[in-house]
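In response to a reviewer's request, we include the raw inputs and outputs for one of the modeled complexes. The four entities were modeled together in a single run.
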Amino acid sequence: MSVEDAPVRFDQILMEPAYRKVAAAIGERILSRSLREGERLPPETELARQFGVNRSTVREALRELESGGLVKRRPGSKLMSVSRPQHDAIAEGVSRALVMHDVTFLEVWEALTIIEPPIAEAAARTRTAEDLAGITAAAERFAAQNAATERAVHYAAEFFRSVGRATHNQVLGLAQEPLLQLLEPSLRVMIDKVPQARSRIATAQKRIAEALQARDVDGARSWMTKHIRDFRKGYEIAKIDLELRVTAD
Amino acid sequence: MSVEDAPVRFDQILMEPAYRKVAAAIGERILSRSLREGERLPPETELARQFGVNRSTVREALRELESGGLVKRRPGSKLMSVSRPQHDAIAEGVSRALVMHDVTFLEVWEALTIIEPPIAEAAARTRTAEDLAGITAAAERFAAQNAATERAVHYAAEFFRSVGRATHNQVLGLAQEPLLQLLEPSLRVMIDKVPQARSRIATAQKRIAEALQARDVDGARSWMTKHIRDFRKGYEIAKIDLELRVTAD
DNA sequence: ATCGTATGATTGTCGGACAAACCGGCAACT
DNA sequence: AGTTGCCGGTTTGTCCGACAATCATACGAT
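The model returned the following structure tokens for the whole complex.
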């Protein structure tokens, strides 16, 4: 082999602007728990002084952290404080990503068929009395909403959320949230177009809640499976094309 | 009932700063496909002129969109262009959120036991020849890495990713990504401490790949189940406390 | 004890400024 | 022909200084 064989290669040099370095520096301190939850950040001018950059630069960094949910302004306060990202905010980012990637209803539905039954199963094992109260409350609120579509959709999603919370597994709760967000718009259409949808959903919710109460693992799982499968039937009856791309809110 | 019964209530008035309005305006145009993927945004000065705000305000809005992955700067270009959020970037946000919420290894592992087997099952149905090639390649690369821990961990995660891709369901692929990110650090420790871990992982990967090749739905699922269960055993042997909080990267 | 006010701190937004980097084209050179 | 050097225009990254509006706090008035 001659020395010429391998062409000279260099790694791409990465220039990180100051605002991203500042954001990374603050973010790392938050992630490492060096800055604790709820703790207030110094004012922008002070941060600018400490980092040796301009206040504008600090502000750009703060916007980045803010949209990641690592810092937020507590209502009625000017100073930023460290926060744990809220599930719905994080999920919204995921939802937007999925929308941008042309995800179809079918994909969302398929994901639901995969994760919801095991969630119900886990919830049957771990639910507390309090969890159960929340779940039945959501089911009852859905059943009571015979008129308002908007609220019915909301409580249908809320039912899933309360079951997710009952697993006491935050990963699962967060994983299902984007799916629910993407489900809602189509559910709105479906409930309006399919008369029998409401009663079928209400029945499934009731059966699931009963199984959870009885700690009936298999029952919870199989009723949840039915519940999800019903959605697909509803889509077909409502003639919603499953290959259609989901839309944001 | 006297008229005094219901206390006067007002909804909280929400003041949205200009930078967030600008970000929302641009973001909406992107989500609605009015601005197409890859299209370049006008320069900051022009945006400032159009929105009637200062350039600094536009910049703060851009930072927000940027960290959401909706816009990014293409390498070697100054103008921002519309982009679809990359999976790993989105997943990193989710991972950070989970870390901040004190998620434990047990929760991550439990989530893996729930979503990975169905993913393997789905992959057995939908995988193409190309998918299969990627999966076996990842498995072979893992098996070949008998020395370097870092790479072994990487290819162990890459194996999951390639199986996820084989489902051709983007929702599932994106849902598993944060789990893999959180798994990696602990996997690093585990592989180092448990001598037999490598061979057990390699075997499981091989069996899963074979099942996928044969389109053996049940085999793929059950071997994936074993594969995940093995991780837990590994944790216990390595004496990694499952109640420990996961850490970021 | 509640309310009104004064004071200081902090943010949101603005205007202007400048160096560095990038782009396109054109001239010069090998 | 292909490479190199240079030029002018554009755009970003960063800085500086400024000001009104809002919030925290203390203090005094009712």
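As requested, we also summarize the result in words. Chain A has two domains: 18-82, 88-237. Chain A has ten helices and two strands.
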